[in-house]
Design a protein that fits this description.
The protein has a single domain, classed as Hypothetical Protein Aq_1857, Chain: A. Strand 4 and strand 5 form a beta hairpin. The strands form two sheets. It has a four-stranded mixed beta sheet. A three-stranded mixed beta sheet has the order 1-6-7. The chain contains three helices and seven strands, in the order E-H-E-E-E-E-H-E-E-H. It is α/β, with parallel strands linked by helices.
Length: about 120
């Protein structure tokens, strides 16, 4: 069986913004603790400014930054691939993109049955 699909990925504009923020702030991480659907915003922090919870789920990496999600959000989103994009707007108050004129945005797509089977076999859902 092939590798399971990525549970989180980023668009090129998101990857470019991650690079910009990393150059200014050093190593980064993302955390999705709220929002239930497309249009919610993950928070971006310097690695040393956020304590990851014991139960938080590491979905993967985007642009070299770990992407965590709270357990309750994981239960809601586990059947979907999160696609992190950038749109005009204002980032969350403590998220590093605040003040850049853009914000990170979650888009998603449902995994196909065979992708879910791969994720189950890998112990990811």
């Amino acid at each position: 069986m092939s590798d399971p699909p990525l549970q989180v990925m980023a668009t090129q504009p998101a990857l470019q913004l991650i690079d910009t923020l990393r150059a200014r702030h050093g190593p980064l991480l993302f955390h999705q603790s709220g929002g239930c659907c497309d249009g919610s915003s993950p928070m971006c922090y310097p690695v040393d400014d956020f304590i990851v919870g014991d139960r938080d789920v590491l979905l993967g990496q985007i642009g070299g930054a770990d992407f965590y999600i709270s357990p309750s959000q994981f239960e809601y989103w586990k059947h979907t691939q999160l696609i992190i994009d950038v749109v005009p707007g204002r980032g969350g108050m403590f998220s590093l993109e605040n003040g850049e004129g853009v914000r990170f945005l979650v888009r998603s797509r449902l995994f196909r049955d065979e992708e879910l089977a791969q994720l189950r076999q890998a112990g990811r859902v």
